[in-house]
Amino acid sequence: MRTALALSLFFAPSLASATVVMNMTRAEMTDLSSQVVRARVGSIRTVEERPGALATLIELEVLETYRGKSTPGDVLTMMQMGGKIGDFVQSIPGQSVFTPGEEVVLFLSAFGDRYVQVGIGLGRFVVERSADGVIAREDLGDVTFASAGKDGVVRIGAKPKAARLWLRDLAAELRSYQQREVR
Question: What pTM does this model have?
């Protein structure tokens, strides 16, 4: 009996360690954002914000602004909870991973004098250049998605298909939301 229970727990899908996020459209993410920018990732460093609490600070050089007051050349600091200092590691499942030098489109919400990504595992497009043109590829984190049904009940759902579109088309779409109030 114990073996059957242990095996059923091992093979059963578990949400206990997963990060669950509400599935949002780009329009909804834009509404929640104070800044939506195309940026180049600069330095990345982890600091101990307070004893036992790590935060990773990511410098972003603004290349283009789709929402908000940043201008090209501005540097924004994005914060993610967790990080690594020596052997001390804290992490949040599904959080986006950044690499210095990469170009991204980010949906950011103000958090003091810093910014946080709108939604863990959401709000990040990686810009890829090829002979065919410039593509923006949505980078969805390894998270579990939930949606509110027509009855108002929130249910776990399937992971949406990551968008892959021309950067110019994404930029035009995001600019169309400029008429909405900036928070």
Answer: 0.85
